[in-house]
Every structure is written in C-alpha cells, then in structure tokens.
Design a protein that fits this description.
Blueprint: E1 2-6, H1 12-23, H2 31-36, E2 46-51, E3 54-66, E4 71-75, E5 79-80, H3 89-103, E6 108-112, H4 115-119, E7 131-132, E8 142-146, E9 157-161, H5 176-189
Parallel strand pairs: 4-6, 7-9
Antiparallel strand pairs: 1-2, 2-3, 3-4, 3-5, 3-9, 6-8
C-alpha cells in the first residue's frame, strides 16, 4: 500500500535519488530549479509517497510571485519511481498537493510540464500567456491553475522566487547569483 505523507528531513537523500533516477542530472540546469535554489518549499506542501518504507514519489510546491506582488506557487518536480509509473501515483500526488494548497488558502499554481498530462488537473497555458520564467523556457509547457477565481487575472511579468531561505544550506555550494539574491532579500526585510 502507498501512503501520501509530509516529507520529513530523513527523506531528503531518498527523494534526491528518486529525482535523479526519474529526471537525471539535467534537472539541475532547468530554469525552474533557479527559482527553487536555496529556498524552502511552501509549508505543508512537500509531499512524498511511501511504499514498504521506501520513498516512491515526491511533489513539492514553492512560493513565487507571478508578476508584481502576485503570490503563487511553483509546482515541481513531480516524480514517481519508474518501477511503478503508470499506476496513477503521480495523479494522486498532484491531487493531494493541489487540495492542500487550496485548503491552505493559496490562489494559484504554475509549473513547467507536459500540457496534455497536466490539463486533467485544470492547468492551462492560457493563464500564463503574460508571464515569463527568469530564463530559457518552452512557452507551451508553462502552465497555470487558479485555485481561487481570478488569482492570475492580470498577472504579468517574470516569475520571482519569494519563499523562505533554507538556512541549512551552506552558501558556498550555491551559485553566486543565488547567494547575492538572498543577501538582497534579507537586506530589504531587515
């Protein structure tokens, strides 16, 4: 039996191995990764699927701004152990994450992904037509979902990371641009 639960600190190594197996090392080069780098996922929105004491699925959502002062969540990555793909676990993780995001009061979710797959959950590229990623991206894979009516209405501009910084990550392993952005963010808050 598979159990969907909150991610725990002890899941990190298993999650990273799963992501490497599913997405490869190239996942670290994607524009979406720049928005997650050095940040914590949104509270209550880092989920794992566990089967026989093994992490077999993961999904996380991250705070971003979809244009000027327009809060949203960035979903991803979503991954399921290749040995059990095709059994609906990815869809179960998605529904669990989206339901939680709505309950927690979030208004919108954006992601980079396969449009036909994510359309079943209500995602559409029409909601992101006036939004951009902060680096190279494929327009047709940039999708949005409103959890609250009109949460993305009028949103325009470039997505910007806005979540809490993960203070447990040593800054010497992060790209200089991420460290600099964090310093700027902390100065604005102070």
């Amino acid at each position: 039996m598979v159990q969907i639960r909150d991610e725990k600190p002890g899941d990190v190594v298993a999650r990273e191995h799963l992501l490497d197996a599913c997405l490869g090392e190239a996942r670290r080069l994607k524009t979406s990764e720049r928005l997650r780098e050095g940040r914590l996922p949104a509270e209550g929105l880092a989920l794992v699927a566990e089967r026989e004491d093994r992490v077999v699925g993961t999904v996380r959502l991250w705070h971003v701004e979809a244009g000027a002062r327009r809060p949203a969540l960035l979903l991803g990555p979503l991954a399921v152990d290749p040995a059990i793909q095709g059994l609906g676990l990815g869809a179960t993780l998605m529904r669990s994450a989206l339901r939680r995001a709505a309950i927690l009061g979030h208004g919108a979710v954006v992601l980079m992904g396969d449009a036909p797959y994510y359309a079943r959950f209500g995602f559409s590229s029409a909601l992101t037509e006036t939004l951009f990623m902060p680096g190279p991206f494929e327009r047709e894979r940039f999708l949005g979902l409103e959890l609250r009516p009109d949460a993305l209405a009028g949103a325009r501009g470039t997505l910007r990371a806005s979540g809490a910084w993960d203070e447990s990550i040593p800054t010497h392993i992060l790209p200089a641009s991420v460290v600099e952005a964090g310093a700027d963010s902390r100065r604005r808050v102070a």
